[in-house]
Design brief:
four-stranded parallel beta sheet, alpha/beta, 10% strand, 42% helix, 273 residues
Length: 273
């Protein structure tokens, strides 16, 4: 047993893995957990901790997605009274599509068609269902994109600072260069085009080939939403410098990059997004 453990140690890890910084749970959250353990039996000036997050604000638990998954996983449940009518209808479409699919279920057309219809309704833009790829989450999608983009340390991807640590971690694992562009704290963590241009030029002087730029909207740390005029500046910048735009839109906003880009008219329809 000891011999096996010795083979799995920091010294045996790859150099890229050692450089990865993926601290999702910050010092603040760790300290909160420690305080929660000490609350009972220890004298503090407070009696409970107030956590920040939608799950702690008495928001109702989303049930539609869970009903659909349950109905699909449990054959026939979509025809019973055990799920709501709309969830049953959605599950029925998925089940029928899966029956027409091959054994491995690679192409679930009904699910992709639902995504297509949602995007077209929300963004007013036509979508080709063949350009829709279903993944388990943004981690998988981003890693797949970076594996196609990054060939070595000379390939850079611009990331917002503050950032969700996944960006830098995956870029490092793919042996690429994470190029920061800083949000303006004095303006409520607003996007700063000057910071973007400055850091782009500095990276180019270091012979780094900027392949892509990640835009998190709303920013997955500060919660700051990027207004349409700034999104247009981002699109113009990437179009001018031939940079792929990666839109990380965790909450589907009223100003998705795809919609903004389509409304900018001719010349920008070829911008990679």
């Amino acid at each position: 047993m000891n011999e096996i453990l010795k083979r799995l140690a920091r010294t045996s890890a790859g150099e890229e893995t050692k450089l990865v910084d993926y601290e999702v749970h910050s010092y603040t959250s760790q300290q909160a957990e420690e305080l929660a353990q000490k609350l009972h039996g220890t004298a503090f000036a407070f009696e409970r901790l107030l956590y920040c997050g939608p799950q702690f604000c008495d928001r109702p638990v989303p049930s539609f997605e869970r009903e659909v998954i349950s109905a699909v996983a449990n054959g026939g449940l979509h025809e019973s009274q055990g799920v709501s009518e709309d969830a049953g209808e959605r599950a029925k479409k998925l089940v029928e599509s899966m029956r027409r699919s091959d054994f491995m279920g690679v192409e679930i057309q009904a699910a992709k068609q639902s995504v297509k219809e949602f995007i077209e309704k929300e963004e007013g833009c036509e979508m080709d269902v063949r350009q829709i790829f279903l993944v388990e989450g943004k981690n998988e999608a981003l890693d797949a994109l970076l594996s196609l983009l990054i060939q070595g340390r000379e390939d850079g991807v611009m990331v917002p600072i503050p950032q969700y640590p996944l960006y830098g971690a995956l870029i490092e694992l793919r042996k690429g260069a994470a190029i920061p562009y800083y949000l303006d704290e004095n303006r409520g963590w607003a996007f700063d085009i000057k910071s973007l241009r400055f850091n782009y030029r500095r990276a180019k002087k270091q012979n780094i080939n900027i392949r892509a730029m990640i835009v998190s909207n709303p920013n997955n740390l500060t919660g700051q939403a990027i207004p349409p005029n700034d999104l247009q500046e981002i699109i113009k910048f990437c179009h001018k410098n031939k940079i792929l735009l990666i839109a990380d839109e965790p909450l589907h906003s009223s100003n998705p990059l795809n919609k903004i880009m389509k409304n900018m008219g001719k010349g920008y329809e070829r911008q990679e997004l």
